[in-house]
Amino acid sequence: MQRAFNYLLLGGLIVMTANPPTPAQAGESGPELIIVNPKTLYDPTPNGYSTAVIVPAGARMAYISGQGGQDATGGLSPDFAVQVKQAYANLGAALDALGAKPDQVAKLTVFVVDHDMSKLDVLTRNVTQMFGDKLPAQTLVPVPKLAIDPMLFEVEAVVVLQ
Fold it and tell me: In 21-79, which ranges are continuous DSSP H helix?
C-alpha cells in the first residue's frame, strides 16, 4: 500500500512540477465527459452522482488526494455540514490549481465517518452545488475514522485534463 501511495504522489509531483496544466491546456470547459445513467438501473442523480462516466480516449488524468474540511489555517469545525462545505471548497481550489473545472471530474470517492441516512441531504446538496447536472461517478465509503480524529468527511477526485 505504501509503495502505491509513493507512486501516485510522485506522479502528481511530476505533473505539477514538470508540466503544470494551464486553463488553455485543460480547455475552456474541459474535455467532454459522457455521463451514463442506464434506464435499466435506478436513477442516482437525485442523490448527487451518475452511474458511470466515459473519459475521452487519450485523455490526461490527474488524481486529487482526499480533501478534508480544514480551512486555510488548518482549523476544522466539529460540524459535519461545515466540514463538507469546506472540503468541496478545497476540492475547487485543487481543481483551480490544475487549471480544471468541475465538469472535468470523472469520479469522486467520499469517506464519511459514522455514516447514516441523515447525512445524505448535506452530501447531495454540496455535490450538486459544485457539479450541477454534470454529476461525476461517485462512491461513498462509510468509515469509523479518518486520518485526523476530528475529521468527519473527505473527498478525493479523478480529473480529466485533456
Answer: 23-26
Q: Quick: pLDDT tens for 62-89.
A: 999 999 999 999 999 999 999 999 999 9
Q: Rounded CA gap, 56 and 31, in Å?
A: 7
- In terms of Cβ atoms closer than 10 Å to its own Cβ (0-12, 13-18, 19+), residue 14 is exposed
- Alpha-carbon distance values, 128 to 30, 73, 88, 123 (Å): 18, 26, 11, 9
Report the alpha-carbon distance of residue 42 to residue 55 in Å, rounded.
22
Parallel, antiparallel, or unpaired for β 61-67 and 52-54? unpaired
Helix axes 80-98, 120-131, angle to 10 degrees: 20
Alpha-carbon gap, residue 105 to 116, rounded angstroms: 26
Place of cell 490549481: 97
The grid cell for 68 is 478534508
Quick: pLDDT tens for 84-138. Answer: 999 999 999 999 999 999 999 999 999 999 999 999 999 999 999 999 999 999 9
The cell 490527474 sits on which residue?
62
